Amino acid sequence: MASSYSSNYLRLISYTKLLSSHVNNGLYGKALSLFHHMHSFLTLPLDPHVFSLALKSCAAINRPRLGAAIHGHSAKACLLINPFIACSLIDMYGKCMSISLARHLFDEIPRRSVVVWNSIISLYTHSNNMPMALELFANMDVAPSESSFNSIIAGLSELDDDGSLKALAFYRQMWHFKLRPNLITVLALLRACLSLAALSLIKEIHGYSVRNAIYPHTHLSSGLVEAYGRCGYLINAHNVFLSISEKDVVAWSSLISAYAFHGEAKTALEIFKQMEIEGVKPDEITFLGVLKACSHAGLADEAKDYVERMYKDFNVEVSSDHYACLVDVLSRAGRLEEAYEVIQKMTVKVTAKAWGALLGACRTFGEVELAEIASRALFELEPDNAANYVLLGRIYASEGRYEESQSVRVEMEERGVKATPGLSWVIYQD
Fold first, then answer.
1. Cα angle: 154, vertex 125, 208; to 5 degrees
2. Measured distance CA(389)–CA(396) in Å, rounded
3. Is the Cβ–Cβ distance between 80 and 109 less than 8 Å?
4. Cis before residue 216, ω within 30 degrees of 0?
5. The pLDDT value given to residue 426
6. Half-sphere exposure of residue 245, counting CA atoms within 13 Å on the CB side?
7. 360: nearest Cα among 385, 338, 328
8. pTM of the predicted model, to two decimals?
9. What DSSP designation does 425 have?
10. For residue 267, which of 304, 307, 237, 246 has the smallest C-alpha distance?
11. In terms of C-beta density within 10 A (0-12 exposed, 13-18 middle, 19 or more buried), how is residue 58 classed?
């Protein structure tokens, strides 16, 4: 009898390790098949960790009915009080069915640990419902953890308006709870820094990461390259890049974009050549940086060559953003007819970026006919964007066609489009 129990116990341990391996490697279908075998043929009760792994697999490959069945088995085994099973169920219901079901389950849990709170807060942040995530955070009846703050900071960093400033406020609040930021925290903070161009905070994050052995990390290093580059601190961006032992496509793309963003086109294109020499395959982000560099330098023919090479040499699909960059390069070079031809031949949806680049160049070069075509397309794509109406009106006025300019103003009023006043802000640093 003891021998049989020992044999079954060893088999359970072996299967549990294999199940963990399947889940960690993204083999969720195999994980669920193994879970079914374990549940059907093993005589020993399954560990809560096993149910948690099965629920994670259900959430990953959208198997709500199986997840609900596992919920039932967990309830029968009185495992719902386990915080890891509870948060796995919340996550599964939120991802596979609806957040309302996940919230209903959350509300029924009598004793909610910080892990359970973090699970429901994370669901709301990932669904872009930050007001509810913030309300839940404020109502936590247990002390928040690093993960609690990480979800809120990450969610706020993705918002427009003052989301980034609020993210920084939560970062400061972490310290009041004597919680130490980790890799996930600093990666989320860097996104906030990008929108604020807060160089002092980027340096603070960099220094903190070095002192606490978070740096170097590939994702963090690439993020620092992008952050320093966005602030125009290209020397630091390049130094961080050089410190990366294994430079992947993200690191290369971040450095190319940094130089392109600040008009250092020659350097950006030289880095791209070095990337090719090193044998790193560029992706769609890489080519956006390359095309922006061409735009700043007025390299229209080179931009056309790069777009042609994208699919031909690297099997990278040309997206609407790439076409918009090409239209911008040609338009800046005064080759408006070519730019319009690119728009007409685009194999993907034409975006407002492409038409906007053409319309802007039409004012520079006094091309009224194409301006009318571009503006009408923009009126359909962005009916509430007053800038397109104003620009067309100015193009008419610059050509002495004041009646048509006035008619654009009338059309704006009829459509209820109002021009918003411009604004700007600066961060003062001693």
1. 15
2. 11
3. yes
4. yes
5. 61
6. 3
7. 328
8. 0.79
9. -
10. 237
11. buried
Place of tokens 């990337």: 275
Chain Cα centroid distance, residue 179: 25
Distance CA 211, CA 197 (A): 23
Contact by Cβ (8 Å): 36, 58: no
- What is the Cα–Cα distance from 300 to 308, expressed in whole angstroms? 13
Q: How far is CA 390 from CA 115, 328, 401, in A?
A: 53, 20, 14
Amino acid at 417: V
Tell me the pLDDT of the chain (430 aa) as tens digits.
455 657 777 888 898 999 999 999 999 999 999 998 888 877 778 888 898 999 999 999 999 999 999 898 888 878 878 888 888 999 999 989 889 999 998 998 888 899 999 999 999 999 999 999 999 999 999 999 999 999 999 999 988 778 888 999 999 999 999 999 999 999 999 888 887 878 888 999 999 999 998 888 888 999 999 999 988 899 999 999 999 988 999 999 999 999 999 989 999 999 999 999 999 999 999 999 999 999 988 899 999 999 999 999 999 999 999 999 999 999 999 999 999 999 999 989 999 999 999 999 999 998 999 999 999 999 999 998 999 999 999 999 998 999 999 998 888 888 888 777 666 656 555 4
CA angle 103, 105, 110 (to 5 degrees): 110
Residue type, 80: L
Q: Please give the full DSSP string across 261-315, using - where no structure is assigned.
A: HTT-HHHHHHHHHHHHHTTPPP-HHHHHHHHHHHHHHT-HHHHHHHHHHHHHHH-
- For 337, the token pair is 């007819």
Q: Which segments of 297-423 are extended strands (E)?
A: none
Instruction: Report the Cα–Cα distance between both ends of the chain, in Å, rounded.
Output: 77
Q: Please tell me the distance from the alpha carbon of residue 295 to that of residue 71, in angstroms, as a whole number.
A: 56
Tokens representing 358 are 């053409």
The CA distance from 203 to 193, in Å, is 10
Question: What is the Cα–Cα distance from 5 to 237, expressed in whole angstroms?
Answer: 60
